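Exercise 3.2. Students should predict the tertiary structure of the chain below and write it as structure tokens, then compare their answer with the key that follows.

Predict this chain's 3D structure.
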Amino acid sequence: MRPYNIEKPLWIFVGSKVIGSGSSSFTKADQQNVSDVTRVVQFFQYALSQPQKLQINIDKILNSKADLINTEGDDIFEHRFEYLKNHRPNVADILNKVFHGAGQIEAYQIKQAEGEIGLRTKMGEQYFAVINIGDVSKYSKKLEEDSEESLVIEDDHFTKSLFQDISSTTSTVNILIGSKKFIEGWNSWRVSSMGLMNMGKGEGAQIIQLFGRGVRLKGKELSLKREEADAPYYIRALQTISIFGLNASYMNNFLTNIEKETPEYQEYPIPINFNKKEEWEGKIITFKTADNHNFKNFAIKLEVKGTISRRITIDLRPKISVAASGLNNQLVESAENQEHNFLNEFYGFIDFNALLIEANRFKLLRGYTNLIINRNSLEDIIRNDHYKLLSQPGQFGIQEAVTGKIQEVAGYVIKDYLNKFYADKEKDYLTRNLTFDVLTEEKYPDLFPANHKIVIKIPKDQASIIEKLLKDIEKFYQEDVKDIPTIHFDRHLYSPIAAFREGKKYQEIKSFPVKLNEGETKFLKHLKSYFKSAKEKLRGKEIYILRNLSRRGVGFFIESSSFFPDFIIWVVDGKKQSIYFLDPKGIRMLGNFKDDKILFCSNTIQEINISIREKAKKQKKDLDINLDAYILSISKFQEIKNNWGNSDATQEDFRKNHVLFIDDSKNYLNELFGKVLA
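Answer key:
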């Protein structure tokens, strides 16, 4: 299985519209969206509450007795589910794997995310599904009405965005329900089954994008291809996308648009050429974890540290989002807020045995298998009053202690502490064991496209364009090619680089490695222009750039996941190498300056820098290495300042936290390279 790079499956239900805000009434489209989502939730409740009936239906399907006959009189599942017919699934195992338990569904509005409702079972502690349908408050009322009050949506103040975490290996979410948020700017290798909701006649182009979300997979050796017919059945089954509609018309519209708009593709490999290889190979520095080091092999005992507790803030205050005199949403908070550690006040109501069980479940869920937790440590963490609990006066009292709300908040604190403690330990370990080496193409092939080729996938009706270009292939290594499109940059370690260009026909062109997105393309073009105009400043210095391939290139551990900055830039001045890790991206979802990626750029990279410099000194390397990292925001400052965690944050505050805004004046590049090129 591992060689085929198959991700854990994700079942999505997707419609083309979100529920609009700004009105208490439902539009016709809103009503259909709510109806479809409610049907999905009700089906899950049926499966969870009546496992015996579910088992009977499963057996009917696997025994070809589903009474669903095609036009030829055969059962539609006759030649399906070969593996399951030989390995009969038990409904209890299905419920545990898909829903993490059984019993009544519980729904929670994820307060730290926009428009998300998490679903979990009464017996399960992890969310199995996330709904993202737009205006949560409007949908919540309707869902509660339709379920005859059996499903009441409560608030979860602790959990971060389930949607944003869905592609990580630690995500517990197996089902995604929602809107065109999946179509616009969302990528995941996990999609295995797709249910269509409220798909009308006007979503042709979006349906194509939606289909693309489902059919993409990594494939063997990252080929992006499915296996041929002679591959084992179970591999072909796992590489198959299943699509169905909640309504026959949804499926008909989908198939009609796919047939009408999906182009047939032809693949063309373009070899890369290395630029100035004799100048950089064996000279510029790269980084790796020292051989024979695995953090998971070392047992770690949970320790109580005030420095970690001080980084914990649990915001339990109700929040209201208001848009007035325009479309800029702002969070409104009550003027009566308090910072009060009511966990100490109701300490006697906390069941630490249950908290220990919850903590151990959480560590296994997060993959912290080498972490040892004992009850005494949990008691000390809660007694410690360094962490912050933000609430309103009277929000937590004896009633909340009796009903278990206090226990729930204690769990929030412990889980946040475990995340931060483990992240600190792993960061310290990796920093100690991160070492440097000189970069050669032979020693570090994963930093470059596989087989030294960029694979261009182009619709067959455009094939003549690339076939003509391939007759004069040297153009790819001498200039930007607009018709594909690609970028040639002689300071990049190789050419060409597949890039973004506006226009439907350019959007249809695919590539592997995946082409630069709009923000990355803009940055690289700015950089190309900037260095061309800075010839005098560059005298005596060498500049080298590398597009850092995700999951293959140079990566760093941060609290939530691994971080692969999009670009690495080396400025070489004799024995001094200034190395920049740069990540152009939209920052709306980062939210505040405490985001892991921002903290990496502003703090962690300097810790790594100190460690690397010390190692170079111990090894008596005649090198002066200096590392730095920045987030380059493609979101404009004016667009995000009102929704940023620090609503009064200035551009100077962003700069101090190593976030620069990409602008056409290219002033951000002066900020980046001004000192090193002075």
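Discussion points: The two ends are 53 Å apart (CA to CA). The first helix runs from residue 28 to 49.
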